[in-house]
Design brief:
Shape: globular
Number of helices: 4
Oligomer: single chain
Structural class: alpha+beta
Helix content: 25-40%
Strand content: 35-45%
Radius of gyration: 21 Å
Number of strands: 10
Length: 204
């Protein structure tokens, strides 16, 4: 059985006598592979020093209505309601052939925190992203420590499989997109000596 279009490759099973036996064996093989991914929540977090100030990075992440301009696969990002420290946005995210429309509730604490939670997605049981900004390197005022985390859990088995295969790469591209946006708005980042930099990544 080959599922190459999904990035999943299940090796061919040598013919077994009897068509019914072969069919049952192949089916069991596929579901044995798929079983560990059922309702498995994926989590990714990273901490790093970045050459932009807390305020600059906060402004990039907090302006949710601009996401459609630079975040990969984000087709729409419209603010539904907004008040001090809070906003609600309608987002549409698509990685063909999958398109998800959902409402995101965003908590804002300038310039320290942007936390977004999905409230009504059809694809997700759970989706949450958290950006935290704290002081960077002493003596380098235009730096900050960035703590980013994302966790989600798909409702369907197929989407859980796809997430397992592509999750890390998708997240890395998202984080890189926010860095490029900061560069576009505020210019090149502060040059940081290599010995003072760090970058930690954790995922499950």
């Amino acid at each position: 059985m080959h599922l190459a279009s999904c990035g999943i490759l299940v090796s061919r099973i040598p013919p077994v006598q009897g068509s019914v036996t072969n069919h049952t064996f192949a089916r069991r093989t596929f579901f044995n592979i798929a079983a560990p991914f059922v309702n498995k929540r994926k989590e990714y977090s990273e901490r790093r020093i970045i050459g932009y100030s807390m305020q600059e990075m906060y402004e990039v992440v907090a302006v949710v209505e601009d996401y459609k301009l630079f975040v990969p696969w984000c087709k729409k990002s419209d603010i539904i309601s907004k008040r001090s420290g809070y906003c609600k946005a309608h987002l549409e995210i698509g990685f063909p052939p999958v398109v998800e429309k959902y409402t995101s509730v965003v908590t804002l604490v300038r310039p320290h925190l942007v936390k977004a939670s999905c409230t009504d997605g059809k694809l997700f049981n759970h989706l949450e992203t958290v950006w935290r900004f704290s002081p960077g390197i002493p003596g380098y005022p235009r730096t900050c420590t960035l703590d980013f985390s994302v966790s989600f859990e798909f409702r369907s088995l197929l989407h859980s499989q796809l997430a397992t295969l592509f999750f890390d790469e998708v997240v890395k591209q998202m984080v890189a997109a926010f860095e490029r946006r900061a560069c576009k708005l505020y210019g090149p980042e502060t040059s940081i000596p290599r010995e003072l930099m760090f970058h930690e990544i954790h995922h499950t």
